[in-house]
Amino acid sequence: MIGALNGAKQKGQLKTEAWPLVSLDSPKRPEWGDLASTVAMSLAASEQRAPHDIAQIIIDNLTQREQLFDRVEIVRPGFLNLTVKPAIWQEVLREIEAEGAGYGRADLGKHQRVLVEYVSANPTGPLHVGHGRGAAVGQAVANMLKAVGYDVVSEYYINDAGRQMKLLGASVYARYEQLSNRPVEFPAEGYHGSYITAVAERVKQQIGPELAGRPAVEVEERCRTFANQELLNLIREDLKSFGIEFESWFSEASLVNSGAVQRVLDELQSQQFLFEQEGAWWFRSSAFGDEKDRVVRKQDGEYTYLASDIAYHRDKLQRGFDLLIDVWGADHHGYIPRMQAVVQAYGHPKDRLQVVLVQMVNLLRGGKKVEMSKRAGEFITMREVIDEVGADAAKFFFLMRDSDSHLDFDLELAKQRSSDNPVYYVQYAHARIASLWRVATARGIACPLPSQTNLAVLTDQDELGLIRKLSAYPSVLQGSATAYEPHRMTYYLQQLAGLLHTFYNKHRILPPAADRDLLMAAPDGVVSTDEPQKEALSPERTAARLALMSGVQQVLRNGLKALGISAPEQM
RNA sequence: GCGCCCGUAGCUCAGUCGGAUAGAGCAUCAGCCUUCUAAGCUGAGGGUCGUUGGUUCGAUUCCAACCGGGCGCACCA
Fold first, then answer.
1. B47 C1' to A497 CA distance, Å
2. Is the CB of A71 under 7 A from strand B?
3. A36 in helix, strand or coil?
4. CA distances from A549 to A100, A244, A418, A446, A448 (A)
5. Which nucleotides of strand B lie under 7 Å from a protein CB?
6. Closest CA to B11 C1' — which residue?
7. Residue A68 burial by CB count (10 A; 0-12/13-18/19+): exposed, middle or buried?
8. pLDDT digits (tens, 9 = 90+) for A322-371
């Protein structure tokens, strides 16, 4: 297309200096061909000619027109509709075969280093549903960025310093003393969940004897570190059963204890980014577009959360990442300007930090809302959801919507084994194809590789439609990855699965086993005529369709894998 | 009050860089299993893209105002 434009320009037929974005979309209606472009209309203004004329000029300058296209036409205002030759589409299957699990991969990232930080919950309790969504989104974004050529590290930031941990320690301590019939006052904003008592019981069992007679301060301290370890392990196990592994775990306490936080503040101060006022130290974030300055060290000498966050992001930048992606709960969106201010204070453009916001999950059961009260410690944990619906279903549901919009998650629906359930719908498409291989093997039908198959027989609109969809996979992956929007992929997979199911229902892939069975079932020699009417299926066509199926299966597998979801062989 | 996000079919939502007759799933209704997995398929009805202006050959998409909803505006995390 560009070639055609340049050709026309050289001949003086077009005069515009800079081309507008030359886009080729896949049109909405089949009669508009396989590819459509609106360049002619975009050029109309600068060329001061009718779009139709410009389109004609482009067509005249198309190279290889005969080899590539069956039909080239101009429609109404100036749409350019192209119908690609089947042979070009058939090549897509060979490409998928050749690239296999790598089909769709790209080198957009050029090995830029990206740190994706997600979940990062306080180790003060089990992960809840919202963390689950963040986990699914973070993992999918990380995976997809890897697939398009970024060097990605995924990291969990452990908020194991500060007030919340103190409260945790105090809560466990209070329960521990209660267990020993030495009631102490429960901290005002302590954690009430039953898991706290469970931890206190383990404290008693495991280190109770050595705590006996020790001063209260020390016991509380031990309770805190014990609980920290316990809950962190719990979180790790929950994530593991959700199929999520982090390459790196980063402790906030390590920053505080090593003095890194103070060093970073000193450094900022020497660069005039910090100032003292009313006994507190402030970060001059308003100099970088934040609406006001922010406290980093309180009057009482304690650091704020922001202080360690500055140190943490400073550390990330020093580790040499070109891009930092933070996955946050959407209620933290007000934090974005100040963190981007931090990045700028360190001399980087603010978009070096990208924040992916994850909105609330609304849990439903059979259409009715599941009430949760975090205050009373009654919330549905991520583990409960995984145990009930399975990791695959949970992930798929978490990824079905734009992460920045609220999500209704119906537990009953996620468990359903029917086409109403999008997870099974997609996985079933993959399993159905797997089943074809099993049947083919059992019947001794050869399944040659696409490269050894005559694909030219794939000319049916349903066949070509599937291939067209397959050919869109790379751009879906790339778009989904670079926009940090995994829901585009789940949407695509549902569409592809839909096409597959329709195809499967409408067409045969393997020849009917019935030939033999029917003869046996018809002792009077009358062969049923039902079967062959549907579609004549030559061995050649069977082979070609199997090749097509193999492509569909590969793409389904690649897409599911990118989302961290399994592609079952059997369901 | 200020800032960010959102408003698309009865419900939940897609809709990329402004393109043609705005899509999917659910729900509703009517059908399809002697066949490679019915965990599936086919068909029908359903719309003032919140409202009003603006930019444009063309706006669900961009801009402004307004209406309605969510969230955030700590020396909390």
1. 27
2. no
3. strand
4. 13, 30, 22, 14, 12
5. 2-6, 12-17, 19-27, 34-42, 56-58, 71-77
6. A367
7. middle
8. 999 999 998 898 899 999 999 999 999 988 999 999 988 888 887 777 87
* Percent of chain A residues past pLDDT 70, beyond the cut: 93
**Residue A541, token pair as written in the block:** 């066509």
Tell me the two tokens of residue A325: 């992606």
CA A120 to C1' B65, in angstroms, rounded, equals 41
Are the C-beta atoms of residues A281 and A265 closer than 8 Å to each other? Answer: yes
Contacts of A6 (CB under 8 A, 6+ apart): none
3-state secondary structure of A249: strand
Whole-number distance in Å between A201 CA and B76 C1': 29
Tell me the β-bridge partners of A407. A361
Mean pLDDT of A43-68: 82
Q: A122 with A106: CB under 8 angstroms?
A: no
Quote the strand ranges of A366-499, DSSP E: 368-369, 407-410
A283 SS3 class: strand
3-state secondary structure of A190: coil
Complex ipTM more than 0.85, yes or no? yes
Name the strands in the sheet holding A113-117, side by side, starting at the edge strand that comes first in the sequence.
Answer: A248-251, A151-158, A113-117, A323-329, A353-358
What is the model's pTM? 0.92
